[in-house]
Write a structure and sequence with these properties.
With 522 residues, the protein is mainly alpha-helical. The protein has one domain. Helix content is 67%, strand content 0%. The protein contains 21 helices and no strands. Helix 6 crosses helix 21. The N and C termini lie far apart (63 Å).
Length: 522
């Protein structure tokens, strides 16, 4: 098996379960891949908009991943083994964060709405560890399935772009606003697509890192990656661009020569995408119709300025100052800043305002411990034949790109971005587990056999599901009506200026079962 090639060192952990048991992991991974590839063409459910149906699909995916892993004794033991692989300090911090979130929710204006976010983040954690289990059991097959997924994702969008561009050029004199709508009509806001790009841009060249050099069609794999960059220039998203720049610098700093194979393909894809963008959006239209065909370009936007984020950040800071210990409650920025936005477009300010300063410190500590866990096992530097060694810079860059972008956007809020966060973190945890010394891994095996541990993880999963099901049982029946009434009372066009959070309209008050006809604030 190729999996065993990845574990060439004698002190690596062998496969956790027999290969036949990995079928459930393949099913879960294929479900994620199917969603990512075909999401642009999935029909919207009758719950008012693509955003809400993305939320429901992602929620079902996360529940299915956890259910397939925790529902069986063998894989549940593997899940516990991955969990106890985390240091005691990390586990205590996770528990503290959960307790802070629950306490903040109980004291919030809308407790069940707040608990919904806490339970959802807990579900994401359960799913991330479940995906780590799948990565360990499938080995390099996991990497290759997701590499193929990246090719298909980029390929689908490249085909849509090509068809739309030809249509716009021939029939509408290069009016590429039509292409813009065709590409991004599955997203309530084009920035949600950009958040997805922040997680995936560094990963788009994974196929080029994994295929053999002698492969005659290897360069063809560059096309989807270049097309993905072209779309970034087309959307003019500065947060993703800045995140990519910071990620390149930090990846080179930490990985040095090991980063060069990834960096060469990454930069080549970027240059190719930029060349295609300049040719198709400037050069060709100038030659044929005498003007560039640009909807909005990253070159046209100011390189400085926060695009109106200052009031959002100011609101979040005021909430932090007035509620420093437990915040105003998870998802309650939307309630306190009603009429402005449902989140402050900054992950750190969002956590401090809604969960409190202690929660922010815990999150920063967990992020730091995660980076230490990831970077300390980079002793595979220079092993060019090791597939995992070639993957590590790309995964690190994806995490950094998204982390930087989260300082200017709602990456930790939006459904597709949350799915990618769960996937990337689980992927990284699985690799970190495999590459840990055998002695360290063996020390946690005994804990995974404890019947008490099995009982508590099932109990926790059940409580998480109840924490999600209870508020959804109230919200889903009125979901379409809430959005329709808000649109009519606000005199907005369909899918107009909603404030997305958990749902497309993120104001908690609108879902309160005792006052569903709240007056919309000016």
């Amino acid at each position: 098996m190729d999996y065993m090639k990845c574990l060439s060192s004698a002190d690596r952990k062998p496969r956790l379960v027999p290969m036949w048991s990995s079928a459930f992991g393949v099913i879960a991974l294929l479900a994620v891949a199917f969603y990512l590839v075909f999401m642009p063409k999935l029909p919207a459910l009758p719950l008012y908009g693509n955003y809400n149906h993305q939320r429901l699909f992602v929620l079902l995916l996360l529940v299915a991943i956890c259910g397939l892993t925790l529902g069986r004794g063998a894989t549940r033991k593997d899940w516990l083994q991955l969990y106890f692989f985390l240091s005691m300090r990390t586990r205590m911090l996770l528990l503290a964060l959960l307790l802070v979130g629950v306490c903040s929710s109980v004291l919030a204006v809308y407790p069940w709405f707040a608990l919904l976010e806490v339970a959802h983040f807990a579900l994401m954690f359960l799913a991330a560890v479940s995906l780590a289990v799948i990565r360990v059991n499938l080995g390099s097959l996991f990497d290759r399935l997701l590499a193929v997924t990246m090719v298909l994702v980029g390929g689908v969008y490249l085909l849509i772009y090509s068809a739309g561009y030809y249509w716009a050029a021939v029939s509408y004199d290069f009016d590429l606003s039509l292409v813009h709508k065709l590409l991004f009509n599955s997203f309530s806001n084009v920035r949600f697509f950009s958040q997805w790009q922040s997680w995936t841009l560094p990963l788009m060249v994974l196929p080029l890192l994994l295929v053999r050099r002698a492969c005659p069609w290897r360069l063809a794999l560059l096309l989807p990656a270049a097309g993905w960059w072209l779309l970034l220039f087309m959307t003019a998203t500065r947060g993703t661009t800045l995140g990519c720049m910071v990620a390149v610098v930090l990846t080179l700093l930490f990985y040095r020569r090991q980063a060069l194979p990834w960096l060469r393909w990454h930069l080549l894809a970027m240059v190719s995408g930029l060349a295609a963008y300049l040719t198709l959006h400037y050069g060709l239209p100038l030659m044929l119709v005498g003007k560039p065909a640009v909807v909005e370009s990253v070159f046209d936007r100011a390189l400085s300025g926060l695009s109106g984020r200052e009031p959002l950040w100011s609101e979040a800071w005021e909430m932090t100052v007035s509620h420093p210990l437990l915040g105003v409650g998870p998802m309650h920025y939307a309630d306190y800043a009603m009429g402005v936005a449902a989140h402050p477009h900054n992950a750190l300010l969002q956590i401090s305002a809604e969960w409190g300063v202690p929660a922010l410190l815990i999150v920063l500590a967990l992020f730091s411990l995660g980076l230490v866990l990831w970077l300390r096992n980079d002793y595979g530097v220079g092993k060019g034949e090791d597939e995992t060694a070639r993957l590590r810079p790309a995964l690190f860059a994806a995490l950094i790109t998204a982390a930087v972008h989260s300082l200017f956007s709602g990456i930790i809020v939006m459904p597709i971005s949350q799915l990618m966060m769960t996937l990337v973190l689980g992927w990284m945890l699985g690799i970190a587990y495999i590459e840990s010394p055998k002695l360290e891994v063996g020390a946690v095996e005994a804990s995974s056999h404890s019947p008490r541990a099995h009982f508590f993880v099932l109990l926790f999963f059940t409580l998480v599901l109840l924490g999600i099901a209870k508020p959804l049982s109230v919200q889903i029946p009125i979901l379409e009506r809430v959005h329709q009434e808000y649109r009519e009372e606000s005199l907005l066009e369909p899918v107009g200026y909603f404030r997305p959070r958990f749902w497309l309209q993120g104001y908690p008050a609108l879902y309160d079962q005792e006052k569903n006809h709240v007056v919309i604030a000016d």
